[in-house]
Amino acid sequence: MGLAAVELGKAMGARVIAAASSEDKLEAARACGADELINYGQSSLKEQMKALTDGKGADVIYDPVGGDLFDDCMRSVGWYGRVLVIGFAAGDIPRLPTNLVLLKSCQVVGVFYGAWAARDPGENNINFREILDFYAQGKVAPRIGAKYPLASYAQAMRDLMERRAIGKVVVTV
Description:
This protein has helices at residues 2-11, 23-31, 45-52, 67-76, 98-104, 113-119, 121-136, 153-161, and strands at residues 17-20, 36-39, 58-63, 77-85, 107-110, 144-149, 168-172. By secondary structure, it is of the alpha/beta class. Strand 6, helix 8 (153-161) and strand 7 form a beta-alpha-beta unit.
């Protein structure tokens, strides 16, 4: 999901700062168009974000990880920024530090795609048309990181759960 977010951000004209826990993931983000890279496993996300944004913080943060990293995201978002809560790959559901929402006048937005698509199929269709247009223009392309035979589905799931996957994991029959 992170690589798709990088590509969509670039397709929409954003300066994309990608953050990941390993150099391999960061290189994949660079290959997808990320302008800047942050390895939050080696140093502070907040400090690196401040340095890359002249102290302003990010306009939008896409957080599929949750856990302890969510607090760093909240401290890295800029004034009037948005933190998009996508999921909890870290396993822990974090608590929202509402003092930071107040101090930064920021928004925390839950992004539950399946529920949104079911509630607003018309907007979902418009969204899909935009993404397909980006695909037709070569601005986005699915990245297949690994393929597994059906007999190895458990390893594919472990790679996803342990956040080792880079790109989409495909299980074939």
